[in-house]
């Protein structure tokens, strides 16, 4: 048996980290770990708003299952000591092959909100997309993260004059890409929000009071910072679905796409494309990119799985427009697979929101670090030294069943 003095050199306790946020985030080795930390740290209604989807959540679950069907074909005996993660995206180089997707009501997850996410995007060298349903104004985000490449996501409102004003404000504030979302003629049936009684702003009911007792830091932060409201809405009562049905225009058509193409001076992306024919239609109208998306599974349940549409869409539109994909991305290997299948890049939303809930700005940075490490490692194990060198032969989607 070894003697105690022989064991002592091996018993080296890890140094104590004073900062509680840093201690939490050190334990996270994956986006799934950040999700679990977020679940424990935020009230159930807030976590479910981010984590949930529409109806039976089949669309979201199918999307995540599709990413699990990815099979890579590695090549060995290649020098992969250095890899280039950069990617040209809508006229500029992104340091990573993904952008931050637009997310509504971001300050509800953590009051650092959109400015924190945009500043992380600036540090990472990737685009950040501000949502029309954001909780920070167009100008405030530009001021908070002047070095960030900023995109603006637009919902067309019944009041077209107000939508035009938002477009003009985005252009004036230096946003270079406009992302029009087209899959929200009405709000999806998000059952978790209904079950939790989530309203905008959150109402302090008996149920939320009890939940708040379990998450005092979240409520203290909420009650001691600026009021939590949508930055572009005057009236915010009710659920998110109520707001969509009251404000968004269900009569959105191709005429509106053509109007925006003429009114917007920068790049134009259409978000919410779910079949090849619609991709062809909007590309013929002059858009620069399509985002294959089912809104994170939050609109039409049983919608097509976006990653399964990448290859046929790329074949249809060719070089006429860039193709992007979102929904269900929880690992850097998902981003690698998206590019190998033909996408110009991916957009991630929930992944960074889990980080935001887990640790504010530091949690968002942790999410980027995790994804960056996973993308780098996946490329090296594939025998590929550059994201731009990814090709169809590097991956496939295994058949179902």
UniProtKB/TrEMBL annotation:
Active site (catalytic residues): 295 (proton acceptor)
One Pfam family recorded for the sequence: FMN_dh
Domain FMN hydroxy acid dehydrogenase: 23-400
Residues reported to bind glyoxylate: 49, 155, 190, 295, 298
SUPFAM superfamilies named among the record's database cross-references: FMN-linked oxidoreductases
Cofactor: FMN
CDD domains the record matches: alpha_hydroxyacid_oxid_FMN (cd02809)
Keywords (A to Z) from UniProt: Flavoprotein, FMN, Oxidoreductase
Coiled-coil intervals, chain numbering: none
One Gene Ontology term of the molecular function aspect: oxidoreductase activity, acting on CH-OH group of donors
InterPro entries: Aldolase_TIM (IPR013785), Alpha-hydoxy_acid_DH_FMN (IPR012133), FMN-dep_DH (IPR000262), FMN_HAD (IPR037396), FMN_hydac_DH_AS (IPR008259)
Binding sites annotated in the UniProt record for FMN: 102-104, 131, 153, 181, 271, 293, 349-350
PANTHER family assigned to the protein according to its UniProt record, in alphabetical order: 2-HYDROXYACID OXIDASE 1, S -2-HYDROXY-ACID OXIDASE-RELATED
Family that this chain belongs to: Belongs to the FMN-dependent alpha-hydroxy acid dehydrogenase family.
Name of this protein: Alpha-hydroxy-acid oxidizing enzyme
Gene assigned in the entry: lldD_2
């Amino acid at each position: 048996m070894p003697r105690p003095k022989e064991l002592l050199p091996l018993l080296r306790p890890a140094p104590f980290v004073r900062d509680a946020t840093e201690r939490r985030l050190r334990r996270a080795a994956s986006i799934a770990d950040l999700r679990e930390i977020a679940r424990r740290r935020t009230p159930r209604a807030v976590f479910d708003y981010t984590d949930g989807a529409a109806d039976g959540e089949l669309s979201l679950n199918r999307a995540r299952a599709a990413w699990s069907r990815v099979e890579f074909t590695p090549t060995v005996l290649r020098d992969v000591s250095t890899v280039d993660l950069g990617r040209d995206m809508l006229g500029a180089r992104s340091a990573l092959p993904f952008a931050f997707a637009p997310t509504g009501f971001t300050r509800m997850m953590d009051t650092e909100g959109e400015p924190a996410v945009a500043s992380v995007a600036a540090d990472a060298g990737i685009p950040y997309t501000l949502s029309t349903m954001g909780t920070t104004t167009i100008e405030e985000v530009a001021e908070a993260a002047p070095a960030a490449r900023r995109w603006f996501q637009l919902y067309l409102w019944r009041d077209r004059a107000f939508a035009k004003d938002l477009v003009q404000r985005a252009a004036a504030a230096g946003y270079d890409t406009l992302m029009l979302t087209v899959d929200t003629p009405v709000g999806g049936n998000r059952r978790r929000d209904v079950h939790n009684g989530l309203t905008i702003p959150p109402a302090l009911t008996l149920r939320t009071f009890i939940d708040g007792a379990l998450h005092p830091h979240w409520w203290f932060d909420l009650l001691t910072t600026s009021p939590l409201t949508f930055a572009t809405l005057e009236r915010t009562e009710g659920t998110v679905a109520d707001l969509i049905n009251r404000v968004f225009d269900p009569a959105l058509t191709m005429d509106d796409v053509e109007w925006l193409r003429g009114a917007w001076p920068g790049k134009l992306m259409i978000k919410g494309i779910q079949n090849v024919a619609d991709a062809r239609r909007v590309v013929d109208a002059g858009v620069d990119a399509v985002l294959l998306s089912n809104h994170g599974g939050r609109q039409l349940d049983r919608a097509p799985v976006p990653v399964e549409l990448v290859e046929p869409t790329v074949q249809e539109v060719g070089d006429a427009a860039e193709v992007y994909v979102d929904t269900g991305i929880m690992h850097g290997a998902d981003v690698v697979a998206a590019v190998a299948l033909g996408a110009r890049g991916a957009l991630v939303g929930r992944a960074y929101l889990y980080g935001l809930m887990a640790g504010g700005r530091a949690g968002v940075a942790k999410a980027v670090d995790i994804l960056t490490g996973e993308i780098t490692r996946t490329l090296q194990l594939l025998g590929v030294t550059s994201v731009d060198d990814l090709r169809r032969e590097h991956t496939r989607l295994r058949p179902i069943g």
